[in-house]
Amino acid sequence: MCLIVFSYRQNKDYPLIIAANRDEFYKRKTKTLDLIEENPLVISGKDLESGGTWMGINRKTKKFAAVTNYRDPSKIMDDAKSRGIIVSSFLKKDEEPLSFLERLKKEKDIYNGFNFILGSTESLYHYSNINDQITQITPGLHAVCNHLLNTPWPKVIRAKKISQKSFESEDIVESSLEMLKDDKLYKDSELPETGMGIEFERLLSPIFVKSETYGTRSSSVILVDKNQNIRFKERAFLEKGLLKDTEFFIS
After folding, report:
1. Distance CA 12, CA 86 (A)
2. According to the model, what pLDDT value does residue 22 have?
3. Structural domains in the chain?
Protein backbone atom coordinates (compact mmCIF):
# COMPACT_ATOMS: atom_id res chain seq x y z
CA MET A 1 0.00 0.00 0.00
CA CYS A 2 0.98 3.60 -0.37
CA LEU A 3 -1.70 5.11 1.84
CA ILE A 4 -3.57 3.60 4.77
CA VAL A 5 -6.04 5.67 6.81
CA PHE A 6 -7.87 3.97 9.65
CA SER A 7 -10.25 4.61 12.51
CA TYR A 8 -9.51 2.57 15.62
CA ARG A 9 -12.10 2.30 18.39
CA GLN A 10 -13.80 5.56 17.45
CA ASN A 11 -16.99 4.47 15.70
CA LYS A 12 -19.46 2.84 18.13
CA ASP A 13 -20.55 0.26 15.54
CA TYR A 14 -17.21 -0.37 13.82
CA PRO A 15 -14.17 -0.46 16.11
CA LEU A 16 -11.88 -0.84 13.09
CA ILE A 17 -12.33 0.89 9.73
CA ILE A 18 -9.51 0.79 7.18
CA ALA A 19 -9.31 2.55 3.82
CA ALA A 20 -6.21 2.15 1.66
CA ASN A 21 -4.77 2.73 -1.79
CA ARG A 22 -2.15 0.53 -3.41
CA ASP A 23 0.14 2.38 -5.82
CA GLU A 24 2.29 0.36 -8.18
CA PHE A 25 3.66 0.21 -11.72
CA TYR A 26 0.82 -0.68 -14.09
CA LYS A 27 2.88 -3.41 -15.76
CA ARG A 28 3.51 -5.32 -12.51
CA LYS A 29 1.46 -8.51 -12.59
CA THR A 30 -1.13 -8.70 -9.84
CA LYS A 31 -3.96 -10.93 -8.70
CA THR A 32 -6.91 -8.99 -7.32
CA LEU A 33 -8.61 -9.73 -3.98
CA ASP A 34 -9.32 -13.43 -3.50
CA LEU A 35 -8.76 -16.47 -1.30
CA ILE A 36 -5.08 -17.34 -1.46
CA GLU A 37 -4.56 -20.79 -2.99
CA GLU A 38 -1.81 -21.96 -0.65
CA ASN A 39 -3.78 -20.85 2.42
CA PRO A 40 -7.53 -20.34 1.85
CA LEU A 41 -7.89 -18.77 5.30
CA VAL A 42 -6.17 -15.68 3.90
CA ILE A 43 -8.07 -13.10 1.85
CA SER A 44 -5.83 -10.68 -0.01
CA GLY A 45 -4.54 -9.59 -3.36
CA LYS A 46 -1.28 -11.09 -4.57
CA ASP A 47 1.85 -9.71 -6.19
CA LEU A 48 2.52 -12.30 -8.86
CA GLU A 49 6.15 -11.24 -9.22
CA SER A 50 7.24 -11.66 -5.58
CA GLY A 51 4.41 -13.77 -4.15
CA GLY A 52 3.57 -11.41 -1.29
CA THR A 53 0.70 -9.04 -0.70
CA TRP A 54 0.10 -5.46 0.41
CA MET A 55 -2.95 -5.96 2.63
CA GLY A 56 -5.13 -8.82 3.81
CA ILE A 57 -7.10 -10.56 6.53
CA ASN A 58 -7.14 -14.05 8.04
CA ARG A 59 -10.72 -15.39 8.09
CA LYS A 60 -10.13 -17.53 11.18
CA THR A 61 -8.10 -15.27 13.45
CA LYS A 62 -9.73 -12.06 12.14
CA LYS A 63 -6.29 -10.48 12.16
CA PHE A 64 -5.38 -7.78 9.64
CA ALA A 65 -2.04 -6.70 8.18
CA ALA A 66 -0.80 -4.16 5.65
CA VAL A 67 2.50 -2.65 4.55
CA THR A 68 3.61 0.60 2.94
CA ASN A 69 7.00 1.44 1.48
CA TYR A 70 9.20 4.03 3.17
CA ARG A 71 10.38 6.44 0.48
CA ASP A 72 14.12 6.98 0.50
CA PRO A 73 15.74 6.23 -2.89
CA SER A 74 19.24 6.68 -1.44
CA LYS A 75 18.85 3.52 0.66
CA ILE A 76 17.25 1.13 -1.84
CA MET A 77 18.84 -2.33 -1.93
CA ASP A 78 18.49 -4.19 -5.21
CA ASP A 79 18.69 -7.58 -3.50
CA ALA A 80 16.20 -6.81 -0.70
CA LYS A 81 13.50 -9.33 0.18
CA SER A 82 9.99 -8.30 -0.92
CA ARG A 83 8.14 -6.33 1.76
CA GLY A 84 4.89 -8.01 0.73
CA ILE A 85 6.21 -11.25 2.20
CA ILE A 86 5.95 -9.66 5.66
CA VAL A 87 2.18 -9.33 5.31
CA SER A 88 1.58 -12.79 3.85
CA SER A 89 3.86 -14.42 6.45
CA PHE A 90 1.89 -12.92 9.34
CA LEU A 91 -1.52 -13.74 7.87
CA LYS A 92 -0.67 -17.39 7.25
CA LYS A 93 0.07 -18.04 10.91
CA ASP A 94 -1.93 -17.90 14.13
CA GLU A 95 0.71 -15.85 15.93
CA GLU A 96 0.35 -12.91 18.29
CA PRO A 97 1.43 -9.59 16.75
CA LEU A 98 4.12 -8.83 19.33
CA SER A 99 5.72 -12.23 18.91
CA PHE A 100 5.78 -11.79 15.14
CA LEU A 101 7.20 -8.27 15.41
CA GLU A 102 10.01 -9.35 17.71
CA ARG A 103 11.08 -11.89 15.11
CA LEU A 104 10.70 -9.33 12.33
CA LYS A 105 13.00 -6.89 14.15
CA LYS A 106 15.80 -9.44 13.95
CA GLU A 107 15.63 -9.55 10.16
CA LYS A 108 14.63 -5.93 9.51
CA ASP A 109 17.76 -5.18 7.47
CA ILE A 110 16.96 -7.64 4.68
CA TYR A 111 14.08 -5.39 3.59
CA ASN A 112 13.97 -1.93 2.10
CA GLY A 113 12.23 0.63 4.29
CA PHE A 114 8.66 -0.16 5.32
CA ASN A 115 5.76 0.55 7.64
CA PHE A 116 3.83 -2.46 8.89
CA ILE A 117 0.37 -2.30 10.50
CA LEU A 118 -1.03 -5.48 12.06
CA GLY A 119 -3.45 -6.75 14.65
CA SER A 120 -7.17 -6.73 15.35
CA THR A 121 -9.80 -4.74 17.20
CA GLU A 122 -8.25 -6.07 20.43
CA SER A 123 -4.73 -4.78 19.78
CA LEU A 124 -3.23 -2.95 16.84
CA TYR A 125 0.46 -2.23 16.22
CA HIS A 126 2.78 -0.28 13.94
CA TYR A 127 6.40 -1.15 13.21
CA SER A 128 8.92 0.41 10.84
CA ASN A 129 12.41 -0.86 10.21
CA ILE A 130 13.48 2.77 9.79
CA ASN A 131 13.11 3.76 13.45
CA ASP A 132 12.98 0.13 14.64
CA GLN A 133 10.18 0.87 17.10
CA ILE A 134 7.10 -1.21 17.90
CA THR A 135 4.18 1.08 18.73
CA GLN A 136 0.83 -0.02 20.12
CA ILE A 137 -1.71 2.12 18.34
CA THR A 138 -4.05 4.14 20.53
CA PRO A 139 -7.73 4.75 19.76
CA GLY A 140 -8.20 7.48 17.19
CA LEU A 141 -7.86 8.35 13.53
CA HIS A 142 -4.48 7.47 12.02
CA ALA A 143 -2.80 7.40 8.62
CA VAL A 144 0.49 6.33 7.09
CA CYS A 145 1.88 6.68 3.59
CA ASN A 146 5.58 6.57 2.70
CA HIS A 147 7.07 7.99 5.87
CA LEU A 148 6.30 7.06 9.49
CA LEU A 149 2.87 6.73 11.12
CA ASN A 150 0.98 10.05 11.15
CA THR A 151 3.83 12.01 9.55
CA PRO A 152 1.98 15.18 8.42
CA TRP A 153 2.55 14.92 4.68
CA PRO A 154 -0.21 16.72 2.68
CA LYS A 155 -1.98 13.51 1.59
CA VAL A 156 -1.96 12.19 5.17
CA ILE A 157 -3.47 15.41 6.53
CA ARG A 158 -6.11 15.45 3.81
CA ALA A 159 -6.93 11.76 4.09
CA LYS A 160 -7.49 12.08 7.82
CA LYS A 161 -9.64 15.17 7.33
CA ILE A 162 -11.95 13.89 4.62
CA SER A 163 -12.14 10.33 5.96
CA GLN A 164 -13.78 11.59 9.16
CA LYS A 165 -16.97 12.21 7.19
CA SER A 166 -16.65 8.96 5.23
CA PHE A 167 -16.13 6.89 8.36
CA GLU A 168 -19.33 8.24 9.92
CA SER A 169 -21.49 8.07 6.79
CA GLU A 170 -24.48 5.81 6.23
CA ASP A 171 -22.56 3.75 3.66
CA ILE A 172 -18.99 3.73 4.96
CA VAL A 173 -17.63 1.45 2.25
CA GLU A 174 -18.82 3.41 -0.77
CA SER A 175 -18.11 6.75 0.85
CA SER A 176 -14.57 5.64 1.68
CA LEU A 177 -13.96 4.36 -1.85
CA GLU A 178 -15.04 7.76 -3.11
CA MET A 179 -12.69 9.45 -0.64
CA LEU A 180 -9.80 7.32 -1.93
CA LYS A 181 -10.32 8.76 -5.45
CA ASP A 182 -9.29 12.23 -4.27
CA ASP A 183 -6.63 13.60 -6.64
CA LYS A 184 -5.95 17.00 -5.13
CA LEU A 185 -2.48 18.38 -5.95
CA TYR A 186 -0.46 20.58 -3.60
CA LYS A 187 1.89 23.53 -3.81
CA ASP A 188 5.54 22.61 -4.26
CA SER A 189 6.32 24.32 -0.95
CA GLU A 190 4.02 21.84 0.85
CA LEU A 191 5.65 18.71 -0.55
CA PRO A 192 8.18 16.56 1.29
CA GLU A 193 11.75 16.20 0.05
CA THR A 194 12.52 12.50 -0.14
CA GLY A 195 15.21 12.54 -2.81
CA MET A 196 12.87 11.80 -5.73
CA GLY A 197 12.97 15.30 -7.27
CA ILE A 198 10.10 17.77 -7.38
CA GLU A 199 8.37 16.27 -10.45
CA PHE A 200 8.01 12.90 -8.75
CA GLU A 201 7.01 14.50 -5.45
CA ARG A 202 4.16 16.23 -7.31
CA LEU A 203 3.18 13.00 -9.06
CA LEU A 204 3.07 11.00 -5.82
CA SER A 205 1.45 13.67 -3.67
CA PRO A 206 -2.31 13.00 -4.15
CA ILE A 207 -4.33 10.34 -2.36
CA PHE A 208 -5.10 8.85 -5.79
CA VAL A 209 -1.99 8.72 -7.98
CA LYS A 210 -2.06 8.55 -11.77
CA SER A 211 0.55 8.83 -14.52
CA GLU A 212 1.51 7.07 -17.76
CA THR A 213 3.31 4.17 -16.06
CA TYR A 214 2.58 4.27 -12.31
CA GLY A 215 -0.40 4.96 -10.10
CA THR A 216 -3.15 3.70 -7.85
CA ARG A 217 -3.93 0.13 -8.86
CA SER A 218 -6.61 -0.59 -6.26
CA SER A 219 -8.59 0.91 -3.39
CA SER A 220 -9.69 -1.21 -0.44
CA VAL A 221 -11.97 -0.81 2.55
CA ILE A 222 -12.25 -3.11 5.56
CA LEU A 223 -15.04 -2.78 8.13
CA VAL A 224 -14.91 -4.76 11.38
CA ASP A 225 -18.03 -4.44 13.50
CA LYS A 226 -18.39 -4.88 17.25
CA ASN A 227 -19.40 -8.53 16.75
CA GLN A 228 -16.25 -9.23 14.69
CA ASN A 229 -18.14 -9.47 11.42
CA ILE A 230 -15.93 -8.23 8.60
CA ARG A 231 -16.67 -6.68 5.22
CA PHE A 232 -13.69 -6.41 2.85
CA LYS A 233 -14.11 -4.70 -0.51
CA GLU A 234 -11.49 -4.00 -3.16
CA ARG A 235 -11.95 -1.85 -6.25
CA ALA A 236 -9.22 -2.65 -8.77
CA PHE A 237 -8.46 -0.24 -11.61
CA LEU A 238 -7.77 -2.24 -14.74
CA GLU A 239 -6.65 -1.35 -18.25
CA LYS A 240 -8.74 1.01 -20.41
CA GLY A 241 -10.61 2.44 -17.44
CA LEU A 242 -12.26 -0.83 -16.42
CA LEU A 243 -13.09 -1.47 -12.76
CA LYS A 244 -13.28 -4.76 -10.90
CA ASP A 245 -15.10 -4.84 -7.56
CA THR A 246 -14.51 -7.84 -5.28
CA GLU A 247 -16.13 -8.22 -1.89
CA PHE A 248 -15.95 -10.71 0.98
CA PHE A 249 -18.08 -11.01 4.10
CA ILE A 250 -16.61 -12.84 7.10
CA SER A 251 -18.62 -13.76 10.19
Report:
1. 31
2. 98
3. 3-250 (3.60.60.10)
